[in-house]
Write a structure and sequence with these properties.
binds thymidine-5'-diphosphate, nine-stranded mixed sheet, alpha/beta, binds magnesium ion, 459 residues, seven-stranded mixed sheet
Amino acid sequence: MAKINSKFVCQECGAILSKWMGQCDVCKNWNCVVEEIVDTSSVSKKDVSVPDDFFTNFSESGKNSSISAQFSQRHITKLKELNRVLGGGFADGSVVLLGGPPGIGKSTLLLQILSELSGIENYVYISAEESVSQVMMRAKRLNVQNPDLKIASTSNIHQILSAISEIKHNSIVVIDSIQTISSDLIQSPPGSISQVRFCTQELVNFAKSNDVIVIIVGHITKDGAIAGPKTLEHMVDCVLYFEGDKSYDYRILRGEKNRYGPTDEIGVFAMGTEGLQEVSNPSSAFLSEYDDNVSGVAVFSGIEGTRPILSEIQALVSNTAIAVPRRSAIGFDPNRLSMLVAVLSNRCKLNFSNKDVYLNVAGGLKITEPAIDLAVVAAIVSSAFHKPLPKGAVFFGEVSLSGEIRQSHLSFSRIKESQKLGFSKVFCSYKTEDFDKNEKIEIRKIKSIREILGILNNN
Ligand code: TYD
Ligand code: MG
């Protein structure tokens, strides 16, 4: 008789508990502990034998052609923006987790990847969400013309693994999505932590032993994390997030973790009638509707990964009658907004106690680097005084609690990009190094946020 094991697993944090509890002991969330039954009948003790070539000497790596080939082999997609995020295409045997909210374009992106990849012979797309005919229809619409592409629709992980067991090297398998596939060895429903973890582990094992690229789609929770335990992100080689506001056409692919390349690099796409198109010059795309005659608008020269991207920061300061005025931000950390408003009140003697402050980063971008502070402060001050900022001005620099403007990294790239897009002035920290004196762009170095008020008054 098969031995049935049961365990109590928190669906929020993945903790395994000794008994059922209303509140998880570890993450303190309520009603998230469920009993999961693990059928261990198929798991038997195996004699573990170690093959002769278990270890490879590091000094042999240059001589062993199969290993040195693995080092260099990268599979390049047609989408340059994606190659940039991956650090030069997909590495053989790598497992990539692609997360994003529903309807953002994950399945569309994957079908476009599968339309052509350098050096790949086998293309497999397994959808557990759509039927084969639905995927076919979409592929036709996206003009995918790949005779080697195979499509299947199933949600059983064991069926998937046996179907792809023969596939080796120079192959890619896409699983859409991890929350909808399941194993009958685990009693909990598809999408539960045990199922997601088990299926991912099986797919990782397959990718590593057969040297196949596996891309797994993961849904995200309302907090923006990939549904399932954080351990899922540790199990894979590369985590990509596909984000963007659905009301805009722009979609941003962000590298969150990458064992074979840089992180924090972004790729920008636009969703059109024929799927995702690359946006090769994001700065001009994000500034397409920029009007420098309006108050409360500042242009920020930011760095995403290694690339400078200009974006428009909009602020609105309005009177309020409520006791605790609102500080609300889209695309920016609201806590940091509160901090900057406090610095402005304290260091510039401006009164925001009866004012709501709203901030928006246009185009659906999310900016986390502190260099945005100066642009935020400039937009707020401009809105508070109903005066536009100087024409053709760009801002960057971190604001400290003392109101001092601090230096930002890669200043030169930020200035160059601003100049390329036709801006005439850059406001940055007084500590920014001097560059080529022949630059056509005027560099205005400022020491304190108080000087922003002067900029407005001289305008
Ligand atoms: P989809 O790839 O199905 O999203 P996900 O897999 O992340 O849930 O994208 C669906 C959205 O994309 C849907 O709102 C329609 C839109 N779309 C286009 O605008 N153009 C296209 O060519 C395609 C295929 C989709
Ligand atoms: Mg989908």
